[in-house]
Design goal:
The chain is an all-beta fold. It has no helices and ten strands. It has strands at residues 7-18, 47-48, 53-58, 69-74, 82-91, 95-104, 113-122, 136-137, 147-155, 161-170. The chain has a five-stranded antiparallel beta sheet, with no helix packed on it. A five-stranded antiparallel beta sheet has the order 2-5-10-7-8, with no helix packed on it. The radius of gyration is 15 Å and the shape is globular. The protein starts with 6 loop residues before the first strand and ends with a strand.
Length: 171
């Protein structure tokens, strides 16, 4: 791997909580529907995408709660394209949800980039086939310090699962 083509970031938390949220993502009162969304001590429950990616557990975290983070690296030769690194399929029912992400992109890398999460609804329980609606994306985060991004997700009628994906975009 050519280090000049790598882009690495850390994700400390991916949270999907049920409920309608106004203009700010106050701490959700409902449980996180993403299994191991805080990367407690492994990447268990997450699937590593195939291709030019690397995902590893890291003890680095945005808080002092003893959990860790997912260290995501894209070594794709292409800049300007979102690269899927980690994902999981979450059982879901239609309604309003909040998808939050705590992420940081370490400074000093030869290749800079951003990270974000996406949510895509499916009619089956295995997150395959045609999506029921366009993907919802958290804002792109490029900060070198821990930063939270969030988006309201409206899961349409007929949805049975939601694919949560963690993505890297190299500049």
């Amino acid at each position: 791997m050519n280090p000049a083509r790598l882009c690495t970031l850390f994700v400390a938390a991916a949270v999907l909580a049920r409920g309608a949220f106004a203009a700010s993502p106050e701490a959700p009162t409902s449980a996180n529907l993403i299994l191991n969304g805080t990367f407690a001590s492994t990447l268990e429950s997450w699937t590593i995408a195939s291709g030019q990616v690397l995902a590893e557990w890291s003890p680095e975290n945005s808080s002092s709660d003893g959990t860790g983070s997912a260290r995501l690296t894209s070594f794709s030769p292409n800049s300007g394209q979102l690269v899927l690194v980690l994902f999981q399929c979450v059982p879901i029912t239609p309604g309003a949800y909040l998808l939050q992400l705590a992420l940081r992109v370490p400074s000093g890398q030869a290749t800079t980039g951003t990270g974000r999460a996406s949510a895509i609804a499916y009619a089956n329980t295995v997150c395959t086939g045609s999506p029921l609606a366009p993907a919802a994306y958290t804002p792109a985060i490029s900060a070198s310090s821990w930063t939270n991004g969030w988006i309201a997700v409206d899961v349409p009628a007929g949805a049975a699962s939601l694919r949560i994906a963690l993505l890297v975009l190299k500049n």
